[in-house]
Automatic annotation (TrEMBL):
<feature type="binding site">
    <location>
        <position position="367"/>
    </location>
    <ligand>
        <name>Mg(2+)</name>
    </ligand>
</feature>
<keyword id="KW-0067">ATP-binding</keyword>
<dbReference type="GO" id="GO:0000287">
    <property type="term" value="F:magnesium ion binding"/>
</dbReference>
<feature type="binding site">
    <location>
        <begin position="312"/>
        <end position="316"/>
    </location>
    <ligand>
        <name>ATP</name>
    </ligand>
</feature>
<dbReference type="GO" id="GO:0006085">
    <property type="term" value="P:acetyl-CoA biosynthetic process"/>
</dbReference>
<dbReference type="GO" id="GO:0005737">
    <property type="term" value="C:cytoplasm"/>
</dbReference>
<feature type="binding site">
    <location>
        <position position="72"/>
    </location>
    <ligand>
        <name>substrate</name>
    </ligand>
</feature>
<dbReference type="GO" id="GO:0008776">
    <property type="term" value="F:acetate kinase activity"/>
</dbReference>
<dbReference type="InterPro" id="IPR000890">
    <property type="entry name" value="Aliphatic_acid_kin_short-chain"/>
</dbReference>
<comment type="subunit">
    <text>Homodimer.</text>
</comment>
<keyword id="KW-0547">Nucleotide-binding</keyword>
<dbReference type="GO" id="GO:0005524">
    <property type="term" value="F:ATP binding"/>
</dbReference>
<feature type="site" description="Transition state stabilizer">
    <location>
        <position position="161"/>
    </location>
</feature>
<dbReference type="InterPro" id="IPR004372">
    <property type="entry name" value="Ac/propionate_kinase"/>
</dbReference>
<keyword id="KW-0963">Cytoplasm</keyword>
<keyword id="KW-0418">Kinase</keyword>
<feature type="binding site">
    <location>
        <begin position="264"/>
        <end position="266"/>
    </location>
    <ligand>
        <name>ATP</name>
    </ligand>
</feature>
Length: 382
């Protein structure tokens, strides 16, 4: 930074379990794969730092070249509407949000604390998944439950994938050559986990995920929207505990639960081509759900200028994009099949014809870039 050049990237896998390893790629060089015993995140980060300083694979001569560390933190609750420099108060606030994201915030804190222990003088920044959605009006984020559940348990819609939606909306505006303040955009983050967001004038005004990461459209193993009375009925009939139903909703539903084939849409598409009826049902439910949300958000924003597809499915499934765009023709979206077929594997651009009143685009997400930009800006302005 600020040149926004990627010097290196990598992944530490299977921390604390058998078969742990590190993949590290220096830009324009081969990938280094190292099998190692990595019992915890502190050891993992030590390996990362060592690789960054390595004579062959490294990109730094000294740790003094490292200006800051940026962390993706899933849940910031209502306290954080933007990224912040991490201090003890921020760590405490992230910890207070653990009941809202019990699977994610503890892991995020582990990374922050490990970095703090390894490099105590290095500034750190938290970039929150929920922050972008803090602009939603109360009419969009409240549920129709007794108000005391909001005041006592902070039960409301929070939304997730905010860093991705922020990047994709702003990149869409750049591609359109218009100020984002003038645009009404629906961003469709479609992957194993998915969410759809209405971005009006550059701010989130509604989003499909809610208090947790189950609502909205069907996902790899998550159910999407379900009538809660059905869940209560099933729990009563089968004597299920809340934890057991949570497992069903998060791990046994969606593509996998409906098809019995896979949680990966590529497998669903392959089975659909062979005539599998349940795979076809998954595809129909998915595109129908996406189109319904886009239509609803067009109504919520009183207009629509563009629909942007991103993430694993959004960037790489021409059939999903085509079927969604067919539904949206009533809004004035005019689809270009040839452009659509050409845009996969990280390519960006239009999949609507030049004169389409409503544009459709594929915009590969870049959450790491948003984290780097926010981190640089906050540290540079200290």
């Amino acid at each position: 930074m600020p040149q926004e050049k990627v010097a290196a990237k990598g992944l530490v896998e299977r921390i604390g379990i058998e078969g742990s390893r590190i993949k590290h790629t220096k830009t324009d060089s081969d990938t280094t794969v190292k099998d190692a015993n990595i019992p915890n995140h502190k050891v993992a980060l030590k390996y990362v730092v060592d690789l960054l300083l390595d004579g062959d694979a490294g990109v730094m001569k000294s740790l003094s070249e490292l200006g800051a560390a940026g962390h993706r933190v899933v849940h910031g609750g209502e306290k954080f509407a933007s990224s912040v420099v991490i201090d003890d108060d921020v760590i405490q606030a992230i910890d207070e949000c653990v009941p809202l994201a019990p699977l994610h915030n503890p892991a995020n804190l582990t990374g922050i604390k490990a970095m703090k222990e390894l490099l105590p003088d290095l500034p750190q920044v938290a970039v929150f998944d929920t922050a972008f959605h803090q602009t939603m009006p109360q009419k969009a984020y409240m549920y129709g439950l007794p108000y005391r559940y909001y005041t006592t348990y902070k039960g409301r819609r929070y939304g997730f994938h905010g860093t991705s939606h922020y990047y994709v909306a702003h990149r869409t505006a750049e591609l359109m050559g218009k100020p984002i303040e003038e645009l009404k955009i629906v961003t469709c983050h479609l992957g194993n986990g998915s969410s759809i967001t209405a971005v009006n004038g550059g701010v989130s005004v509604d989003t499909s995920l809610g208090f947790g990461t189950v609502p909205g459209i069907i996902m790899g193993t998550r159910s999407g929207d379900v009538d809660p009375t059905l869940l209560l009925h099933i729990m009563e009939q089968e004597g299920m505990s809340p934890a057991e139903m949570s497992h069903v909703l998060h791990k046994e539903s969606g593509f996998w639960g409906l098809s019995g084939i896979s949680s990966d849409l590529r497998d669903i598409e392959e089975a659909m081509e062979k005539g599998n009826e349940r795979a076809t049902l998954v595809m129909e439910m998915l595109v129908y759900g996406i189109a319904k949300f886009v239509g609803a958000y067009a109504a919520a924003m009183k207009g629509l200028d563009a629909v942007a597809f991103t993430a694993g499915i959004g960037e790489n499934s021409p059939i999903v994009r085509e079927k969604v765009c067919e539904y949206l023709s009533f809004l004035g979206l005019r689809f270009d099949r040839a452009k659509n077929e050409a845009l996969i594997r990280g390519k960006e651009g239009y999949i609507s014809i030049k004169d389409s009143p409503v544009k459709a685009l594929v915009v590969p997400t870049n959450e790491e870039l948003v984290i780097a930009r926010d981190t640089f800006e906050l540290i540079d302005n200290r």
